[in-house]
Each structure stands twice: as C-alpha cells, then as structure tokens.
Amino acid sequence: VECETVTRSVQTHRASRHFRNYWRYFPEGFDRFAAFVSRTWPGMAIYPPEKPEMLAKTLRMMCREGALPGELYWAGFGFQIWCQLLTHIFRASDDALLVIDEPEIYLHPDVQRQLLSILRDLGPDVLIATHSTEIMTEADPAEIIMIDKTGRAGRRLKDIRGVQQALDAVGSVQNI
Description:
This protein is an alpha+beta fold. It contains seven helices and seven strands, in the order H-H-H-E-E-E-H-E-H-E-H-E-E-H. The protein has helices at 3-9, 19-25, 30-40, 77-91, 109-120, 133-138, 160-169, and strands at 44-46, 62-65, 68-71, 97-101, 125-129, 145-146, 155-156.
C-alpha cells in the first residue's frame, strides 16, 4: 500500500485496514503507542512494522506475548482490533471530537471497561455508539444518552434506574 493511499484513507472507514501502513509511513509517536499497548494489554509488546527484503510485498508487524514472538496476525482478533483502536485514539488526541462506533467487537469485557478510562483522559469529546453492557455499566449514568429509533431525540440518563432501562433495551439480562 502506498503512502498516498494511507493518507487518503486515514479519515475514512477504511483507516483500520491501513493500521500497519499508518505506522510504517508515520512512525512518529510509535514508541509512546507501543508503551501504551503494553500498559493496557499486560504481557504484550508490539514492534514497528517492517518490510523484509525477501518478502518485498509483505509488511510484517511483530508482537511478543510473554516470551513468545510472532506476527501480529496470530495474536488474535481482539488484540489486533485493540491496536487499531488505540492507533486511531492516538491520532485523535488533538481533535475536538472522536466518534467511535461499537468498539466492543472482538474485545474482551475487561478491555471494554478499560476503554472508558482511556477515553476520559484523551482530550477531545468522545461519542461512543455501543450495545456493550460492559461499557454502559462502567460509565456514569450522566455520560449515557439512550437513543430510541422510534423517538425524535435521545434521553440523557440520570441514575442507575436509567442505566438498567438501557441495559434492558439492548437485551441484557444483567440486573445492576
């Protein structure tokens, strides 16, 4: 993938497809990013992408889980998604608004809960569309706006009772 393609896609829905190439062409801040990945996913380390000469068409990105090194592809979807998500969070740290649509896909419940504290410290305002009971129960009720497609406006929740209504609306059996 060429640098022009990555640059053109960086603000679109295709950005996650170019996660490795983003760090290849724009390596500034990778060390901070890698340290953050290690802090938020214990036991994992991630390394900058590389293009070995013998594999000229293949961009390789290595990680290490404990003592086991391997290509990021083999680390599992959850870790790959986490790295993609953190890449975009890092890129958005100077923006006014960050919109994240259903970040819970492939993420372990502990990582979903951790995401909110990361986003609170980020800088920009954050809007998350989610059906995750983990994210909803980790949020303060006043941080949640419940959207009902049959209504004309969202409703900001005020208390635990409102959070329970939101959980019920997404089909959860969780009783908080």
